[in-house]
Specification:
The protein is α+β, with helices and mostly antiparallel strands and 150 residues long. It has five helices and three strands; from the N terminus they run αααβββαα. It has three domains: 6-68; 72-118, no CATH class; 123-149, no CATH class. The protein has a three-stranded antiparallel beta sheet. Helix 1 crosses helix 3 and helix 2 packs across helix 3.
Amino acid sequence: KLNVGVDTVQHGVEGLTYLLSESSKLMISETDFQDSIHVLGFSDELNKLLLQLYLDNRKEIRSILGELTPKLPSYHNLEWRLDVQLASRSLRQQIKPAVTIKLHLNQHEDQTAQVLQTDPSTLLHLIQQLEQALGEMKTNHCRRIVRNMK
């Protein structure tokens, strides 16, 4: 009926979906939406139809996008223990430390526990990497990304 190829229709639907989902995700204003679609070169009538479509459906699109986000486990509690092996039958004077961590997580109102064991040097490296990641989150670039993800 449209006298166009399947790929053209598919790309058009994907483009429209992307436009509406990104606009709804960022909750852009009417003027920003109009400016965004104005550069596409559509007629004024089509621009008004797209604006009305966006305004009518942006709250529903945001709720659907909110439901699609993965539900990751969240931190509940942490238990840790330091074990040190001082000697064995073959080696009478050795020191072999190990840190055992029991991480309690909440996921969908269910509590799970993960037991991890590592040596202190690996644990110190992990702590340094996490502190570096937290420091990275304080940069303006990361703050801008996090703000746009909401």
